[in-house]
Hints:
By secondary structure, this protein is of the alpha/beta class. Helix content is about 45%, strand content about 10%. The protein has an eight-stranded parallel β-sheet with strand order 7-6-5-4-3-2-1-8.
Amino acid sequence: MPTTLTAFADVTTSDSALRRFLHGLPGVDAVGLEARAASLGTRSIKTTAKAYAIDLAISMIDLTTLEGADTPGKVRALSAKAVNPDPTDRTTPMTAAVCVYPDMVATAKAALNGADVKVASVATAFPAGRAALPVKLADTRDAVAAGADEIDMVIDRGAFLAGRYLETYELIKAVKEACVRPDGTAARLKVIFETGELSTYDNIRRASWIGMIAGADFIKTSTGKVGVNATPANTLLMLEAVRDFKAQTGIQIGVKPAGGIRTTKDAIKFLVLVNETAGEDWLTNEWFRFGASSLLNDLLMQRQKLSTGRYSGPDYVTVD
Length: 320
């Protein structure tokens, strides 16, 4: 199969060539997209299947704290929770990652102490992305040098919405290169589009293809810092994009909805979207993640209810 670079070399030679390719993608039927997302959200998952889905969702969480008031103590507590989400039940899966600001990467790395939980770091002047390219690259390199396993970058939505598609592509490509360590290994790159600011489904489809062509390991809906974040419809659209990209190139790209996913019911709806759209290959935390801070607690309460028959309530889980 061709690599991303060789398969799309012609479309990234100029802004006009990339624009022709992106505007040549099929238009999105917004009514059909939203209807399909709503229909898949009505699937009923019960008993054994629900227990499996809850454990799978826990294992896919990037447990996140991205606040100005973050402290080393809060990050250490969050890391401990990622490793052992329910101290009363050691069969509870670990989360996929802990996601923090770059200055907290070393703290999270030390707190995890070799556990099979990744450290993800936001970078590139998150969440607005309003900084010069050298600053964005330095932000990325600092996080990688501190031990980040994964980088969650933001695109310049202003450049994208102004139609400067090649600039958007080149930013992602440059950040991808900044993720490479001196020993040749690399942090995985998640590219955040901030779908709530892209205005149209066609723009979300175009941004998805730019991210994939530029070398993203994941495409991600949102920062969680705006009014509209992950929705079933925009996530469905991105799942269709990674499915089609793999069919065309043989390269698998992950998807990460983030922001606004707070309940077990929500999480299971998204897992149904994954299974029915991209397929079982994406039903693993290597290729699908939830960006969340409060989702884990609801999953733990529902898990305890399935195990004991009693709903324990929020007092039985830690407040993050």
